[in-house]
Specification:
There is one protein chain. The strands form five sheets. Strands 1, 2, 3, 4, 5, 6, 17 and 18 form an eight-stranded mixed β-sheet that branches. Strand 14 (371-374) and strand 15 (377-380) form a beta hairpin. This protein starts with a helix and ends with a helix. Helix content is 33%, strand content 17%. The protein has 554 residues and is α/β, with parallel strands linked by helices. Helix 2 (26-37) runs parallel beside helix 15, helix 10 (300-317) packs antiparallel against helix 11 and helix 15 packs parallel to helix 17. The radius of gyration is 24 Å and the shape is globular. The structure holds ligand NA7. The site of ligand NA7 has 22 residues, from helix 6.
Length: 554
């Protein structure tokens, strides 16, 4: 009997689990559900006060998912997808959080989830071939496996701006928004940051604030969401097609989203035809703007046609030519940063109570008790909103002191950039899985599609190990090196590395700049992962119980 089977028995020692899962967002919840289905004992630790992960923290005004609700939802339960009623094309954050809570209740997940508990440390015990996991409450548990379901955009980044702590008004970070309703009525508000969170929140805050000043370092491309209520007919039409939609999203699409697959490049069409297609996608709204042609992410000349179209739209919408010019992105190809999806973002700058400040040419010097000083000018404010993003993809993992073989920490190993095999495991850290980790499509995709794929793969892998009496599993260094090189090589066939984006770690001072997600597409990536599994987990070392003893004593 393997150690996994022995700890799976009902009489397992208190504080000993087959699997510890870190995080109870969409990844952690589904992982728990699948592991239970295998009959394993599982404990999930969640830092937040409830389930939902990124949707628990990102409660800022206007927060929505940029993937349509009917697709940004679990597919593992047909009853769930047939019964849940999404109210809008893009569900607002409170509705997504309600959905997460519904899933937790519906599948009876809460009894194995411990909230308000951060995992501080995880150390691999080579003699026992298991992990010792220590929480913020000081308690330690033992687990054969650890799954990091810590999320890619959960570690909000406070900017290092002089005087920030001296500010006398309220300061909010979009990624760590308070739970009570924040009302900016009558207040002078500043928003620093014009990524997706800034772009979603600015129009809503502008409606409340007496004056809103937006501090922009980099202009971003944004496409109208065209959000609208979903009718029952629309929901039914979608539900009827779910088998095909989900299959396409998993197996065919690059980004896990069901849409038309382009078969032409942007330069294959004449000016009028191309413009008509861009107009049609602009009118439709949403992320599929970028899939009108098949080479927008690859060919700069093709990309320029789409970028110019959006720049022209900005100039049409924004009345003040100087403001319009500032809002036109000019230092990265369109789509090389995750494109934003907005409701009235550019039009908001036509409001008399909104000012745009260009902090690229006039950087913020300091925050005063009652103002932001930039370019020698003081902008008086009562409240400050930091929409300054995340230490993405690796930030939440790096906060945990993870020690693998020979006491090496994951942070030491990843000092020059994250190294994983398939984004799932890192050599030297046996029995430690990462969901949607660096080296997998993750943030370049519909996250729920990628989450379900990883959870299913890990679950199948643990069943395989149990059935064959394997005790431990580890990525081979050589396979990992090849995969890291492949991820990098594929990224550099595209325009993505041309942007200083959080995909590259470029938003965090001193973070190594390598392209973190796998850009080959979710369909291709799934085939690779399935192929690896079909070959008995090629590129991974499987260690039987007796071998494990030998490895530990050698
Ligand atoms: P992003 O996309 O990382 O955007 C952060 C914004 O904050 C961006 O405009 C940054 O400018 C700006 N920023 C960051 N630090 C500073 C400082 N110190 N001073 C001024 N401006 C700063 O984060 P979001 O939360 O908007 O979106 C993240 C993802 O969540 C998004 O892609 C969706 O997938 C959902 P910069 O571009 O670095 O010049």
């Amino acid at each position: 009997m393997s150690a996994l089977q022995s700890v799976s028995r009902k009489d397992h020692a208190p504080g000993a689990y087959d699997v510890v899962v870190v995080g109870a967002g969409f990844a952690g919840m589904y992982m728990l559900h699948r592991l239970r289905g295998l009959g394993l004992t599982v404990r999930v630790y969640e830092q937040g006060g409830d389930v939902g992960g990124t949707w628990y923290w990102n409660r800022y005004p206007g927060a929505r998912c940029d993937v349509e609700s009917m697709q940004y939802s679990y597919s593992f339960s047909d009853e769930l997808q047939q019964q849940w009623n999404w109210s809008e094309r893009y569900a607002p954050q409170p509705e997504i959080l309600r959905y997460a809570n519904h899933v937790a209740d519906r599948f009876n997940l809460r009894r194995d989830i411990q909230l308000n508990t951060r995992v501080d440390r995880a150390a691999f015990d080579e003699s026992a071939n298991s992990w010792s996991v220590t929480m913020s409450d000081g308690k330690t548990v033992i687990a054969k496996y650890v799954v990091l379901a810590t999320g890619c955009l959960s570690n909000a980044r406070m900017p290092d701006i002089k005087g920030l702590s001296d500010f006398k008004g309220r300061v909010y970070h979009t990624g760590h928004w308070p739970h009570e309703r924040i009302d900016f009525t009558g207040l002078r508000v500043a928003v620093i940051g014009t990524g997706s969170s800034g772009i979603q929140s600015v129009p809503v805050i502008a409606e409340q604030a007496s004056h809103l000043t937006v501090f922009q370092r980099t202009a971003n491309f944004s496409i109208p969401a065209r959000n609208a209520p979903l009718t029952e007919e629309e929901r039914q039409a979608f539900r009827a097609k779910y088998p095909e939609i989900r299959r396409f999203a998993r197996e065919v699409a690059r980004n896990g989203i069901y849409t038309e697959m382009p078969d032409r490049g942007a330069l294959d069409d004449g000016d009028n035809e191309r413009r008509a297609k861009y107009e049609q996608r602009w009118a439709r709204g949403g992320l599929t703007f970028m899939s009108v042609y098949n080479n927008l992410g690859l060919d700069k000349a093709a990309n320029d046609t789409a970028a110019n179209f959006v720049r022209e739209k900005i100039a049409e919408i924004v009345r003040d030519p100087q403001t319009a010019k500032l809002l036109q992105p000019n230092n990265h190809p369109i789509g090389s940063k995750r494109i934003c999806i907005d409701t009235d973002y550019f039009a908001t700058f036509n409001r008399p109570n909104v000012t745009l400040v260009d902090i690229r040419s006039n950087p913020i010097e300091e925050i005063l008790p009652n103002a932001v000083r930039a370019g020698g000018k003081d902008y008086e404010i009562d409240a400050l909103v930091l929409a300054t993003g995340f230490d993405a993809m690796t930030g939440s993992v790096a906060k945990i002191d993870i020690r693998g073989r020979h006491g090496q920490t994951l942070n030491q190993k990843w000092a020059e950039g994250p190294k994983t095999y398939l984004g799932l495991m890192s050599a030297g850290f046996p029995n430690l899985f990462i969901i949607t980790g660096p080296g997998s499509p993750s943030v370049l995709s519909n996250m729920i599609v990628s989450i379900e794929q990883h959870v299913d793969w890990i679950s199948d892998c643990l069943a395989f190990m149990r059935d064959r009496g394997f005790e431990a599993m580890e990525a081979e260094r050589e396979a990992e090196e090849k995969w890291v090189a492949h991820v990098n090589e594929v990224a550099h066939t595209t325009l993505y590395p041309q942007a200083n984006s959080w995909y590259m770690g470029a938003n965090i001072p001193d973070k190594p700049q390598i392209f973190m997600p796998y850009i080959g597409g979710v369909g291709v990536y799934r085939q690779i992962c399935n192929g690896v599994a079909a070959k008995g987990y090629e590129g991974f070392v499987m260690i039987a119980a007796e071998q494990a003893q030998r490895v530990a004593t050698s």
